[in-house]
Design a protein that fits this description.
This protein is of the alpha/beta class. The protein has 2 domains: 229 residues, 3-Layer(aba) Sandwich (Aspartate Aminotransferase, domain 2), CATH 3.40.640.10; 137 residues, Aspartate Aminotransferase, domain 1. The chain is built from 13 helices and 13 strands. Strands 1-9-8-5-4-2-3 form a 7-stranded mixed sheet, sandwiched between helices. The protein has a 3-stranded antiparallel sheet with strand order 7-6-11, with no helix packed on it. A 3-stranded antiparallel sheet has the order 10-12-13. Strand 2, helix 4 and strand 3 form a beta-alpha-beta unit. Helix 1 runs antiparallel to helix 8 and helix 3 packs across helix 7. It is globular, with a radius of gyration of 22 Å. It starts with 24 loop residues before the first helix and ends in a 6-residue tail after the last helix. Bound molecules: pyridoxal-5'-phosphate (PLP). Pyridoxal-5'-phosphate (PLP) binds next to helix 3 and helix 4.
Length: 395
């Protein structure tokens, strides 16, 4: 039996996986247009064009492009009227920005458990945590897999909650044929470097409600009003504007997105088939309501009995040593003491079972792993099999 690379053996793979980000002549052409135009920020046409094209692609009427996915969450929450004293339902399995944005507008995140199939918010658990001050729910489409939006919409309708979809990882994803980000009152996306379309940094709010779009635009632009003079500020806001350079890159990235989604979906299907043949791992299920999965992450579970013997981090380190880019993913948000201090809780009291089970057992592969050929995915499967067959070397 081959020795594990982490213990000095020969790795399954030495070649890199497809590079990310990718770009082509279109990005270069559009960037040069901006450079030569001298309109690098306000006054140019690229941000406007990108907002329209991205919103249209996501079946939303309006888009407000901004500087990051976190900034998009902040301005969307403000535009939805979330304020000091309000409570917002936030799944405990997400990037910290989902919760810090809530804190940044003066509201309090209420951490809720997740559905172990979609890894999205558990509406059942969320319902138990609703109180008088609860005003909003933030379903997060983790890894590009839409949360169960039927359940989220039904809960929000029953309790009069606003829905803000955190679609930072879900460009082009669909729930029952509807685009993630445009099912709730507003949706936000990130264009950070690792995301499925990127301008290095960047974000956008999409919505079909004109008043929400107007307010989001105002908050991201120092409290201006689109219809008034430049120095007539009407409310407290920030400068979260996107530059024309970012928008130029994103226009080209958006054109490439549909073919990349197809590619990632095909690869994920193949990899799931390969991993299903290996005892001890299981791909995270693709819920039947997901008609388009963005696969920002490919996520698989390791059997609980294995994790009891070998901590997940050691498995991840062993896979990395075999040449497979992967990581252990999130820990429950309530384990960040700085966050719990902000929400006025010590942190010791909260335990969410599904969140903890998922955090201890899943492994993430980044989306660029899905952009290569079947041989690349065979290497992933081979490495997983090799590590699991040699667990005694890690125990
Ligand atoms: C689920 C989620 N929400 C919000 C964000 C914040 O986006 P950004 O990094 O662009 O601020 C991210 C980015 O990693 C994310 O994954």
């Amino acid at each position: 039996m081959a020795k594990l690379a982490v213990n000095g053996g020969e790795p399954v793979r030495r070649k890199p996986f497809p590079q990310w980000p990718i770009y082509g002549e279109e990005e270069e052409k559009l960037l040069l247009e901006v450079l030569r135009s001298g309109k690098w920020s306000v006054g140019g046409e690229k941000v406007k064009q990108f907002q329209q094209e991205f919103a249209r692609f996501h079946d939303a009427a309006y888009g407000v492009a901004c500087s990051s996915g976190w900034a998009a969450l902040v301005i969307a929450l403000k535009a939805l009227g979330i304020k000091r004293g309000d409570k917002v339902l936030v799944p405990a399995y997400t990037f910290a920005a989902t919760a810090t944005a809530v804190i940044d507008v003066g509201a309090t995140p209420v951490f809720t458990d997740i559905n172990p199939d979609t890894l999205g918010i558990s509406v059942e658990d969320a319902e138990r945590r609703i109180g008088e001050d609860t005003k909003c729910i933030i379903p997060v489409h983790v890894g590009g897999c839409p949360a169960d939006m039927d359940e989220v919409v039904s809960l929000a309708d029953r309790y009069g909650l606003k829905i803000l979809e955190d679609a930072a990882q879900a460009h082009g994803a669909e729930w029952r044929g509807r685009k993630a980000g445009s099912i709730g009152d507003a949706g936000t996306f990130s264009f950070y470097q690792s995301k499925n379309m990127t301008s290095g940094e960047g974000g956008i709010v999409v919505t079909s409600r004109e008043e929400v779009a107007d307010l989001a635009w105002s908050y991201h632009n120092v409290g201006r009003d689109r219809r008034r003079e430049w120095y007539e500020l009407v409310r407290y806001g920030w400068n979260f504007r996107m530059t024309e350079f970012q928008a130029a890159v994103l226009i080209a990235q958006l054109r490439r997105l549909p073919s990349l989604i197809d590619k990632r979906e095909r690869s994920a299907e193949y990899l799931s088939r390969r991993l299903s043949e290996i005892e001890g791992v299981e791909p995270v299920k693709r819920p039947s309501g997901v008609t388009r999965h963005a696969y920002h992450l490919y996520i698989f579970r390791v059997d609980r009995e294995i994790i009891k013997k070998v901590p997940k981090q050691r498995l991840v380190d062993a896979l990395k040593a075999e040449g497979i880019p992967c990581n252990p993913g999130y820990k429950p948000l309530y384990e960040y003491r700085f966050l719990m201090r902000e929400v006025g809780m010590s942190g010791g009291g909260l335990r969410l079972q599904n969140t903890e089970e998922v955090c201890s057992s899943v492994v993430w592969l980044p989306q660029n792993v899905l952009l290569g050929c079947e041989g690349d995915l065979d290497d992933v499967a081979e490495a997983v099999e090799k590590v699991l067959k040699n667990l005694n070397e890690l125990a």
